[in-house]
Amino acid sequence: MASGANKKVGAEGASSESGGSESGSEGRPVNNFDNNNTRNDDNVISGGEKFEYSGWVYHLGVNSIGHEYCHLRFLFIRGKYAEMYKRDPHDDPSAKPIRRGVVGHTLMVEELGRRKINLNDFYILRFYNRLDETKKGEIACDTAGDARKWMEAFDHAKQQAAYELSRRGSARNKLNMEDEINLEKHRPRVRRYARGWKKLIRIGQGPEMLLRRSSSLGAGGRPDAYFDADSGDVVEAHQWKCVRTMGGVRIFEDVSNSKNGKGILVKAVGVVDANADTVFEIVLSLDRNKRYEWDTITGDLEMLDSVNGHYDVVYGTFNPRYLTWWQSKRDFIFSRQWFRGQDGTYTILQFPCEHKKRPSRSGYERTIISPSTWEISNLSTSSSSNTARCLVTQMLEISPRGWLKWRNNDSQKFEKTVPYALLSQVAGLKEYVGANPALTSVSSTSFVQSKISHVSSSSSEFEDAEMADEFYDAISTDSSSEDEDDDNDMEVNKVKKIKLKNVSWAIASLALKRTSAPDTNKELNSREPPINLEPSQFYGSMRRAKDEGDKNCWSSPDGTGFMIRGKTYLKDNTKVKGGEPLLKLIAVDWFKVDNSATKVALHPKSLVQNDAGKKLPFVLVINLEVPAKPNYSLVLYYAADRPVNNTSLLGKFANGTDLFRDSRFKLIPSIAEGYWMVKRAVGTKACKLGKAVTCKYLRQDNFLEIDIDIGSSSVARSVIGLVLGYITSIVVDLAIVIEAQEEEELPEYILGTVRLNQVRPESAVPLEV
């Protein structure tokens, strides 16, 4: 086990030093399940390797008499099955699971962000059935990194279930039986132990780290993936120029927008010798003692309000005498909004704001701190290195006055300003981490080999056990006979770690100039003559753009602004510019609804139901359900001019299972024009929607409808709320892609695009039910 040995737990709240080098914050197999930069999905499963994930969590919930409970539990995932124990079964093979269930294909895992439990901050994961959200449960994790690894573990379990469903003829009936809900509070009978599970991945640092917060931050390296905070799936318009370096940190200016008379966009970029999970915890922490060691300006911070797990409001004070001796003390208030992308990159948005709890204070001058963002992403390391690295980017908007003089060496006063102190935070963070070995010397992601595989069960033996409950049912049902744990004398087995081979990505710059055009002969039936998709035959409630300057309308750009997987992606990770979309966008509806609207293609007034729509060979209907007051639905209609080839990737997607669709359906967002903070919030990376939000599919006649519930994710709700605040002044580009995961599916192609130009919410048309 890569975790340090679990020590006997002492008084709650005492401080302990974990050391960090044996932190056990790893939880990844060599295949990266959610990283778009690696070939992932079925390699581990189909390769014959069997993985186990285990670690300590808090089980949260409400019992049958309405009392909230918070129990320390050992969570174990084997294949598609999950179990909860009071004791670590590796230490006590006779331990019986108190909860067990199937990680079925309807299970959704949502990250709820931070929540205070026993006066400490923990990261909450919510489990629910996407077909019935009343079936749900929650667990709490020690760090954001642990929450990420548990999400990946559950995703891998869902992949295992999908693999078994596709490879075994009887699995379909078996899975249907397991999907049946059993809410009986039975005590599961003792399962038989078996051999055959090859790898054990421990998550977290053991129960003492949940009960006793360490004075240092736990860390877990992630050397099996390469991330670049400025590279993504969108061709951005920024033109960054390095204008200074200080303390190993580069200072950049966006010279493409430096002459527009507005604020100057600048950023500080540095490589920090710790993993992204650790650095994220440091930046988010309000601990005064820690911040004094690296933050020269915002060291005194106080939480004013926690809106939700991904949004809070912070008050701070600072004394600027070291900047200019005559100035009075200052205070400030800002809101923080954070989330983690599917590629593992953390983004923190910081806005100046006001709050009723902190009006103007006597003796202090209220300062409006510049809007800023943090982006923290892991970097690859050599296979022999025991140190993780991440790229930290802090971006902020500052007034042009003084900046240009400082950049041109006409003035040295910039070093005595608040923006300079903010840009110095990356350098301070870099030095702080470098001076703390517990943060920098972290173990690389490793497999942990079970000493004896008798603690693991084969799939066949699990199927013989009473495993009818889905996992969300198993953790949401509380038994009144359960007592608080007093099993605090658990010692963790020491095992041999196996270092992973580092993957070195070679990016060919010339390949980026190539474009990827869809092979219509492969995706569509070339033996059928194409029909004429005359735009005048189709119309929706939103206008088609007359020209580039038109507003509150839509258009369909080509795919050259998006980066997709090239022909050699599985070998060298090369992405290329997209080409013309395979499907043509023929209409857009912009609806206003009281509740979320689904199955819009079945509505009598839908485009698909009119005479022209019924004659189309194939229509892809994308229904983006936008949570707001009122709610909105953006419905996109993409048409093919010929029938779909059933053996093609599009044919498999249109006629396949929901599991297959969830694993392949990608959306690439881009803010083509608009406020830079909105651009950073939306990002430039492709999002696998089936993993991020709830997607429902309707396949009938000549169409496939995908209903995308953006409100099913707290992170997505937060981002869309920010976008809606600026929607009348921004231009949004979207590209739809079916992810290629096999050699014969490459290169990828753009399925469809849309550009939404300065949409007005009040122009939405009510949808009559």
TrEMBL record:
InterPro entries per record:
EDR2-like, EDR2_C, START-like_dom_sf, START_lipid-bd_dom
Q: Name one Pfam family in it.
A: START
Q: Where is the START domain?
A: 240-425
**Compositional bias (Low complexity) spans?**
11-38
Which intervals of the chain are annotated as region Disordered?
1-41
Q: What domain of life is recorded for the organism? A: Eukaryota
Q: What Gene3D superfamilies does the entry give?
A: 3.30.530.20
Query: Which PANTHER family does the entry mention?
Result: ENHANCED DISEASE RESISTANCE PROTEIN (DUF1336), ENHANCED DISEASE RESISTANCE-RELATED
Q: What is this protein called?
A: START domain-containing protein
